[in-house]
Amino acid sequence: MQESNKPDLDDSLNVTESHDRMLREAAAVSREKHVDEGGREPVSLWIFASCAVIFIFAGLALGNIGSLGSLFDYDQTVKPGYVRLDLSEDGAQGPPPAEALAVYIKKGQKIYSSKCQGCHGGDGKGGPAYPSLAGSEWALGETQRFSMIILGGLMGPSSSGKDYGVMPSQKAGMTAVDLAGVMTYVRNSFGNEAGDVITEEMAAHALKLAEERSDPNQPLSKDELDEKYLAPLEGEPLDPTMMIDPVSLQPVEGAAG
Ligand code: HEC
To answer: How many structural domains does the chain have?
Structure first.
């Protein structure tokens, strides 16, 4: 038996057919090349082109046309009357100076709302279990007595003679500025009109007096107050209308009230 190397007729027919199939497949592959896996089609060039055109026109409109153009104009978008902050060393500035009484009251209001309001009320009128600070002789009278009530607390009768129980010491975390502020606030709120400023210096004196007590956190009695603290706190009085810096509390030169 001899093996023939020649393709027979069947074979040659098959060759033609498979050649056709190859061409068809190649055409299909080249069509499908444009479709990504996951079915995403690449973005057509014309979309890029039209976006570019839109952006160019939008840019021109914002930059040039009438009121739209002023969107990016600093002088037109900043309200009149506002000035740029001068951040150079000489011009470094915090909040503007204000009258001493107002500055201390503002500081004190924050302390009052966090430390006193829960008991004495937002209006200072107290309630069934707490005495009113409006018109209170011990808030408005001698400043040593008032300061010692805040720092040490109070037990026994209040100024009205009524005994409300015990007010605990409010000394924890209280700085001289806090104490000065809250005293000034109470003495000038709720209808109280002492009109004076309890300064940081005076409050520092109060903190010193409190530390000198054998137990600084022991609430004071009326007797202890009457015996030791019927005096003004020491310190230079401050003109309530003096313009001071709200941060440093120092008088501001050349800015008379
Ligand atoms: C936990 C409740 C409580 C807090 C907080 C509190 N107090 Fe009092 N305070 C009292 C009570 C109760 C009395 C009355 C005590 C008594 O009758 O012995 C009182 C009394 C006083 C008095 C005396 C009033 C008078 O005329 O007899 C003053 C002044 C006062 N408090 C100021 C303050 C200030 C200022 C703060 C905040 C720094 C403060 N208190 C925080 C409960 C409180």
So the answer is: 2
Quote the CA–CA distance of 93 and 247 in Å, as a whole number: 11
CB atoms within 10 A of CB 43: 9
Domain range for 52 is 43-79
Instruction: Tell whether the torsion through CA atoms of 222, 228, 231 and 237 is positive or negative.
Output: negative
Ligand 1 contacts CB of residue 167 (under 6 A):
yes
Say if ligand 1 is within 6 A of residue 127 CB: no
Shared domain check, 123 and 165: yes
Give the number of the atom of ligand 1 that is nearest the alpha carbon of residue 163.
17
CB 143 near ligand 1, within 6 Å: no
Does the model's pTM come out above 0.90?
A: no
> Tokens 């009258």 — which residue?
99
The model's pLDDT over 189-205, given as tens digits with 9 standing for 90+, comes to 999 999 999 999 999 99
Does any domain span residue 32?
A: no
Q: Is residue 205 part of a domain?
A: yes
Give yes or no: residues 210 and 138 share one domain.
Answer: yes
Whether ligand 1 lies within 6 angstroms of the CB of 158 is answered as yes
Tell me how far the alpha carbon of residue 239 lies from the centroid of ligand 1, in angstroms.
Answer: 28
50 and 159 inside one domain:
no
pLDDT (tens digit per residue) in 4-22: 566 566 665 677 778 888 8
